[in-house]
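Mods, move this if it's the wrong board.
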Amino acid sequence: MADDLTFDTSPPAHAEECVRVSPLVRRTVASNPGPITFTGTCSYIVGSGKVAIIDPGPDLPGHVEALLHAVRGETVTHILVTHTHKDHSPAASAIKAATGAIVVGCAPHRSARPLFTGEVNTLEASSDKDYTPDQELHEGDAVTGPGWTLGALATPGHMANHLAFALPEEQALFSGDHVMAWSTTVVAPPDGSMSAFMASLDKLRGREETIYWPGHGGPVQEPQRFVRALIHHRRQREASILNRLRAGDRTIPEIVAAIYQGLNPALVGAAGLSVFAHLEDLVAKGQAAVEGLPALDSEYHPV
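Not the wrong board. Structure tokens:
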């Protein structure tokens, strides 16, 4: 089968409805739809009797209530967090307070690189600076329960602290926002890094999971083919940016207007940040040039 990148934009479920999606996994979608979150954040319950909740989501009373209702009569032993965006981690505190479960997973929020002198981090509002896990998980660490194992896999790129969690009993991977079936992932400096994102995709390409459960949207089927297609798509985007530089474009808004024709206006800012991530990577690789350090308002040149 050709590695064409095609998206599944069918809604995964009604908001706050708990649905069993596999023998070991239930999913509840938060009621926080938007141009970046799609139909809402997917929170997952793994196991039965003694369970783990992955990505408890935004701290919305209705979502917290829906998750607690779904595990009524069961014991929540672990709350796992893939990364510290405010649509994924804040409800961990409320779930912990209600259940006594420990919060494990990614490290506290950090940027992929230090801020440049005078640089303003436009992503501050989207990051959960209050998240403090009881236990940080690192590559190869795992938590377990009756009939289930969740192993941590470092997948930086979308955010520096991003983790995925492997469920070997079902050859499944909870991919957070690293790989999603409904859309490409926003990679936005300084919190995100395109070079790290591509390295994480290469890591996943060599794995054997047969399905991914992402942070938004429905499952990623045939994940190895999909990851190959994502890598190809990013390389094509990189080539398009270089072509626009050679054609005379010098600024990020010029490049976005040329290569994202027909884009939803609500996504123009996100597209600009992804172009910035590519340009930052291209400058680091010596394939593009900039006076001083790469920034959103810099002028870029071909090499």
